Amino acid sequence: MLSRVLIRSAAVRTALPRATPVFRPSIVGTRFYSFKQEDQPRIRIGSTAPNFEVNTTSGKIDFHSYIGDNWVVLFSHPADFTPVCTTELGAFSKLKPEFDKRGVKLIGLSTEGVDSHNQWIKDIEEVVTGGEKFGFPIIADSTKEVAYKYDMVTEDDFKNLESGVVFTVRSVFVIDPAKKIRLTMTYPASTGRNTAEVLRVVDALQLADKRGIATPVDWTEGQDVIIPPTVSNEAAKEKFGSFKQVKPYLRFTKLD
């Protein structure tokens, strides 16, 4: 758990020793966070996505309430007005109708404030979306709380969370309606993401949940899927009809 000390007045702040790091996030109610690596939540597949309340370009949100009964893709960016991020956010915004069809909400993150995000969105709409309105919120993680909870920083930047300039890495989290982490991807700051891959893995996860199958390498919608080894041949025939057995543990079938 993050330890929190409420700094209640300017007088109290003045009384603090000079060596005490203090920063003033652009959210209501100033808070001081002490970020400790040993207290950092462990984010694994199957973990409950840590909740948080934060300002975004669409207003203040409670993240679990934002998820609701939907799937969510949460992804972070090193900073506002960065070239690779500008292309990524615009591409995700253009793909938003496809995510909508799948019941998936998108939400981005950067460690700067809402005003900066809003100015950045104007650039994204100008140079990437062709004037189309940007389609989803961007989290203003100026306290770096979300970056900490979701481990979105490099080893070196972790040491600067309390007082230094921090550029979040390009993390992607696919979260299901039960608030469980289903997939994670982490890219270095220099490497742009593949939006089609994010959409592809959402399709694979949702199909696996719905039909009890697995998907092979490079699978895309409509291609053959794999019958899990835990399903017997008799059960597979009853459930899927015909299938192709390559090895006793490797069987392919086509879904209707």
From TrEMBL:
<keyword id="KW-0049">Antioxidant</keyword>
<dbReference type="InterPro" id="IPR019479">
    <property type="entry name" value="Peroxiredoxin_C"/>
</dbReference>
<dbReference type="InterPro" id="IPR036249">
    <property type="entry name" value="Thioredoxin-like_sf"/>
</dbReference>
<dbReference type="InterPro" id="IPR024706">
    <property type="entry name" value="Peroxiredoxin_AhpC-typ"/>
</dbReference>
<dbReference type="GO" id="GO:0033554">
    <property type="term" value="P:cellular response to stress"/>
</dbReference>
<dbReference type="InterPro" id="IPR000866">
    <property type="entry name" value="AhpC/TSA"/>
</dbReference>
<protein>
    <recommendedName>
        <fullName>Thioredoxin domain-containing protein</fullName>
    </recommendedName>
</protein>
<dbReference type="Pfam" id="PF10417">
    <property type="entry name" value="1-cysPrx_C"/>
</dbReference>
<dbReference type="InterPro" id="IPR013766">
    <property type="entry name" value="Thioredoxin_domain"/>
</dbReference>
<keyword id="KW-0575">Peroxidase</keyword>
<dbReference type="InterPro" id="IPR050217">
    <property type="entry name" value="Peroxiredoxin"/>
</dbReference>
<feature type="domain" description="Thioredoxin">
    <location>
        <begin position="43"/>
        <end position="207"/>
    </location>
</feature>
<dbReference type="GO" id="GO:0006979">
    <property type="term" value="P:response to oxidative stress"/>
</dbReference>
<dbReference type="InterPro" id="IPR045020">
    <property type="entry name" value="PRX_1cys"/>
</dbReference>
<keyword id="KW-0560">Oxidoreductase</keyword>
<dbReference type="GO" id="GO:0005829">
    <property type="term" value="C:cytosol"/>
</dbReference>
<comment type="similarity">
    <text>Belongs to the peroxiredoxin family. Prx6 subfamily.</text>
</comment>
<dbReference type="GO" id="GO:0008379">
    <property type="term" value="F:thioredoxin peroxidase activity"/>
</dbReference>
<comment type="function">
    <text>Thiol-specific peroxidase that catalyzes the reduction of hydrogen peroxide and organic hydroperoxides to water and alcohols, respectively.</text>
</comment>
<feature type="active site" description="Cysteine sulfenic acid (-SOH) intermediate; for peroxidase activity">
    <location>
        <position position="85"/>
    </location>
</feature>
<comment type="similarity">
    <text>Belongs to the peroxiredoxin family. AhpC/Prx1 subfamily.</text>
</comment>
<keyword id="KW-0676">Redox-active center</keyword>
<dbReference type="Pfam" id="PF00578">
    <property type="entry name" value="AhpC-TSA"/>
</dbReference>
<dbReference type="GO" id="GO:0042744">
    <property type="term" value="P:hydrogen peroxide catabolic process"/>
</dbReference>
<dbReference type="GO" id="GO:0045454">
    <property type="term" value="P:cell redox homeostasis"/>
</dbReference>
